[in-house]
Amino acid sequence: MIKNERQYRITKSQAQKFQDAIHVLEAGERNEGLHPLLHQAQVNALRSQLQELQADLAQYDALRAGGKPTYDFTHFEQIPSALIQARIAQGLTQEELAQRLGLQPQQIQRYEATDYQSASISRVADVIRALNLPVPKGLDAPDPALSLANLLGRLKSAGLNEEFVKRRLVPRPPGLLTEPEGIRGDDIVLEAVEGLDRIYGWNAAMLFGSDQLASAGAAASTGRFKLPARVNESQLGAYTVYAHYLALLVLEATPDLRLSPLPNDPAVVRNSIIASHGELSFNSALKYIWSLGIPILPLNDPGTFHGACWRVRGRNVIVLKQRTRSVARWLFDLLHEYYHAAFNPDLEEHPVIEESEMSPARRQSDEEQAASRFAGDVLLDGRAEELAETCVTAARGSVERLKSAVVRVSKREGVSVDVLANYMAFRLSLQDINWWGAANNLQEDGSAMLCSPRGILLDHIDLTRLAPVDRNLLLRALEPVVLAFSGKVASGKSTLAKEVASALAWKRASFGDYVRVVADGQGLEPSREVLQDLGESLAKAPEEFCRAMLAHFGWQSGEPLVIDGVRHLEIVEALRRIVAPLELRLIFVDISEEQRRERLAGAGDVNLAKMPQIEKHSTERQVDTVLPDIADLRVSTGGNLGEVVREIVSWVHQAEGSGQYAA
Question: Which of 95, 254, 360, 477 is the most exposed, fewest CB within 10 Å of its CB?
Fold first, then answer.
């Protein structure tokens, strides 16, 4: 959509270039080496883009000529375009609208550039009034009714926990709700309520009115995605509706996955995984199932939702939900859900929502039992029942002796003790015996695993296919992070950042490397003193500096990233704004002064006599006094580098599900 005269001129120029290109292709001789169909495809592609541009131009022309747009404020997502169209139709420039509101013109430009996503609800109501439009019911309420506190209370009555709303549904952590436009901590931005509307179907009148909100399950029938009719009403908790919405976003963002037949014989699945990847592990099983065209969405929130497998118009999507660090539990659940995906392949729709392991519905379901036996046979090479009976015999039928029996049998039979323990817990659950606690005590700690289901998902999905509000909802659920490293000169932060980026298979960006590139472009000497002065100059415009550096390294919004060389609090704050909704975590690298001096002496490129002067420079001042205190993690590089890398990787994975709330 064209929003101002500058965009109109640019679009008109682009349209003319497309017209000229089409004319050249149609009037000139076709390249002899190009097939006629490919030639025509080129023409058709250009013509399609030209038609889109012409449609945008025609819409803007019609609005400028006084055309009256249709204002439909039924849902929040329709408000931004209505406000922009109304301004254009009334012949108002962005500057004139800003004047009516008592704002700077740049603020209206930012609002419209982001489709008002960062504007508070009260500000949106002000804009509607300034344009003399009818204020939707709900948004005409007094300011206290439009506060975050009031909204949290209303959502709680509908089954949404306060921490869940703050962590997953609002556009950024509440502590960061301080933007240049003056948003207060208790304001609600449009993006937050748009997400609630899309997931649960609550419009302005419902969210901010006085009537009791319908329950999340009942409200979801009017949301963007409809839950399958076969889902029991008792399963429609607030989190289930949310997880279903995210699962369908994943399907929407992975349209090019090639679907393959799904084998349902455990021996075939086991052998296929090993043949393709050389081993049977959580990592190899993830990759194998993705290769069959099944996306996997990992969630780690606490609460009563235990996972799901949804089939929608013939496409499967698996939702894994665990908060354990046991890779064996994740692997067992993954294969369990895969069985549901392979079960009844002829059904277009096949929803399965997991209940807890000990729930009667799960224990008494033939399909659930078959899914767990399938997972056990894949992992234990078809011997799951045989080994379970062996354990019972070794324990002489005593549950109290079973733990030591599982350890002995696993060692003797050459199978993983945690895998066998999980299968035994499943088998005992059929007798209404809860042995999952004992099984958990036999799990190997997989917190330092380098494979993340979240990382594999981010590698496969195309976030550009999602609307901005949906993209941010999904990213907040996945919680990809940006790691920023800081530390004194010669602390080893750059080496550590490189190793961590390699271990996590994440992109790396470096402020120091970027400053060297800028210095080279300006013909400056690359001495430490010159680079410090240049860095100080660039840091005076922190947001511009950060964006330029990220662009130089090809970072795309939504990507996890490792950043090296953070030296200012202002840079940390700018990065937090830029990478949102991703979380920025600051790691400060310590080292003893003696070891640091040894490194400086051995570096060869540092004059030790100049070090006091270098460390008094403004670029180093906050590294010594501010950044250590605000760091999320402090590590020392004085010992084994590999151990420090593993510590950071473990910390990243453990922190993925650190929220202590239920939904």
Answer: 360
Residue type present at position 205: A
SS3 561: strand
pTM of the model: 0.74
DSSP state of 540: T
In this structure, what token pair is assigned to residue 358?
Answer: 């000990």
The CA-atom distances, in angstroms, between 42 and each of 14, 32, 425 are 17, 15, 60
Q: Domain containing 177: what range? A: 76-221
Amino acid letter, 484: A
List the strands of the sheet with 633-636, edge to edge: 507-510, 561-564, 481-487, 583-590, 633-636
| 500 shares its domain with 647 | yes
Q: What are phi and psi of 382, to 5 degrees?
A: 80, 5
Question: Which three-class secondary structure state does DSSP give residue 590?
Answer: strand
Please write the tens of the pLDDT for every residue from 328-382: 999 999 999 999 999 888 888 888 888 777 778 778 889 999 999 999 999 999 9
316 and 414 fall within a common domain: yes
User: Residue 482 carries which DSSP code?
Assistant: E
Gyration radius from the chain CA atoms: 29
492: left (phi over 0), alpha (psi -120 to 50) or beta: left
Please tell me whether residue 230 adopts helix, strand or coil conformation: coil
Number of domain units in the chain: 4
Helix (H) or strand (E) holding 633: strand 633-636
What number of CA atoms fall less than 13 Å from residue 250's CA on the CB side? 33
Contact yes or no for 97/171 (Cβ under 8 A): no
Q: pLDDT for 73-119, tens place per residue? A: 777 888 888 899 999 999 999 999 999 999 998 889 888 888 887 78
Q: Are 578 and 542 in contact (CB under 8 A)?
A: no
Length of the chain: 663
How many distinct helices (H) and strands (E) make up the chain?
33, 9
- In-domain check, residue 42: yes
* Dihedral sign computed on CA atoms, order 608, 613, 616, 617: negative
H helix or E strand, kind and range, residue 27:
helix 5-27
Final residue of a domain: which of 409, 440, 471?
440
d(CA 76, CA 66): 25
Closest CA to 472 of 194, 216, 217, 223: 194
